[in-house]
Amino acid sequence: MATTMTQFGYTAMCEQTPVRQLVSDLQAAEQAGFDFSVMSDHYFPWLEDQGHSGYAWAVLGAAAQATHRLPLMTMVTCPTFRYHPAVVAQKAATIGVLSGGRFTLGLGTGENLNEHVVGGGWPSPRIRHERLSEAIRIIRHLFTGDYVNFSGRHFQVERARLYDLPDAPVPIGVAASGTESAQLAADQGECLIATEPDASLVEDFNRAGGEAKPKYGQLPICYDPDEQAARARARRLWRWAAPGWHVLSELPEPRAFDAASRQVREEDIAQLVPCGPDPAVHVRAARQFTEAGFTHLALVQVGGEQQGQFIAWAEDELLPALRAAAGTPGS
Question: Does a structural domain hold residue 331?
């Protein structure tokens, strides 16, 4: 899976877009020439104003049939609370078959927001990492097609086996936010996943054996012909991200994110989310990821209703500008 050129992807964000539109947006992204796509897997939106949260795996099944070239990926699924890892393995293998081998299973430790709904509590980061490591071992073993029995500290598997498998095992990506999780990603994943342009994270991943593996980043942007409208929309729909990951992983529901981000100002969000119609503004933000060593960058357009105009603009202006800046040939 090693790559030498930056690739630019499209994010189908389930928290802000109706489920049928997610599929048509992915079709449009494929036609526009995006190199890959990723999809969030949430039970809740981050904010009440986002207003959606369809079941990602049903959408992925539809997208696998509605697209033909575009790689698909979860960014990310938590295989340790809402879902048992044996069930995640079955879902991932099925999407791998339906997509003709175009699917990558992105995994992470999750957030309280989405995982508390099954009543299992929300443990410390150390326990969450332990659970993720066990889950990946189970999923990989099931991808072999063998019968699996597993007795771990956190999970039990009794005589499980998958019968519908793609020709090659589904690649696994692992989300990381620090040294420990970067090492886990290098040890147990085919690629690194992160949401910030953190060069130290890439360095930790490389040192742990991931140097030749892809590194996936994600950049929120807010395109609009009117820059002020873009800034206002970014503040309304993306202010949840301002407190940072240590807060994001712990809050339990959209109302809590609404309360925690109520005092976030428009200018604060403009520091996190490039806004407006000038491709150069977005290219500068993307360059932070490429300079940090990321090989893949998934773009997130803020606002479900704006996806169509964003994809058209990206095809005509943004993707050519990004590829020119990164020295990447057009797709």
Answer: no
CB of 213 closer than 8 Å to CB of 1: yes
Residue 165 three-state SS: coil
Q: Please list the helix, strand and coil fractions of the chain in percent, rounded to the nearest 5, in that order.
A: 45, 15, 40
pLDDT digits (tens, 9 = 90+) for 281-307: 999 999 999 999 999 999 999 999 999
Give the C-alpha distances (Å, rounded to integers) separating 287 from 50, 158, 183, 234, 282. Answer: 28, 47, 25, 20, 9
- Angle of the 56-66 helix axis to the 85-98 helix axis, nearest 10: 20
- Sign of the Cα torsion 188, 288, 113, 92 reads negative
The predicted structure's pLDDT at residue 245: 82
Identify the active-site residue in 15, 30, 42, 282.
Answer: 42
Residue with tokens 């953190």: 198
User: What's the pLDDT tens digit per position in 160-208?
Assistant: 999 999 999 999 999 999 999 999 999 999 999 999 999 999 999 999 9
> Is 242 within the bounds of a domain?
yes
Establish whether the linkage from the previous residue to 202 is cis, with ω within 30° of 0. Answer: no
> Which of the following is catalytic: 30, 111, 115, 134?
111
CB environment 228-262: b (16+ within 10 A), e (fewer): eebbbbbbebbbbbbeeeeebbebbbbeebbebbe
Could you report the per-residue pLDDT of 37-65, keeping only the tens digit for each?
999 999 999 999 999 999 999 999 999 99
DSSP state, 305?
G
Provide the domain count of the chain.
1
Whether residue 2 is contained in a domain is answered as no
Residue 328 pLDDT: 66
The reported pLDDT for the residue numbered 4 is: 54
Residue reference for tokens 């207003």: 51
Check if 42 is active-site: yes
Nearest to 57 by CA among 30, 82, 29, 27: 82
Give the CATH number of the domain where residue 99 resides: 3.20.20.30
Domain holding 40, by residue range, is 7-326
Does residue 1 lie within any of the structural domains? no
